[in-house]
Amino acid sequence: MARNVDLTGKLGLGEKPTITIGDTTLTVNDSAIALIRVLDIVQANMTPAQMIEACTILFGEDGPKTLENLNVKFADFPTIIETAVELAMGGGGDDSGNAETPATI
Is residue 95 part of a domain? Predict the structure, then answer.
């Protein structure tokens, strides 16, 4: 009989990471294929078109419009993309979000 290894419990299948800006929460597409596509275009000197493409991949078709409606400054746009990529890779962002309550002993 062929061997089978069930990875279901070891994989992060479930809740997607989110980024909150003001009163708006954006869900980050953390699928492997999406992240591979974003990593292919993200670079130190991204063009505006590449930023929009990364935003669309990470936050869906409405992502760029949502950020436009939030009046996000151009200088802040790379930070949003970088944070989303870090979350999609399993990181915790830059820790400037909501602090976790420390455990009491």
Answer: no
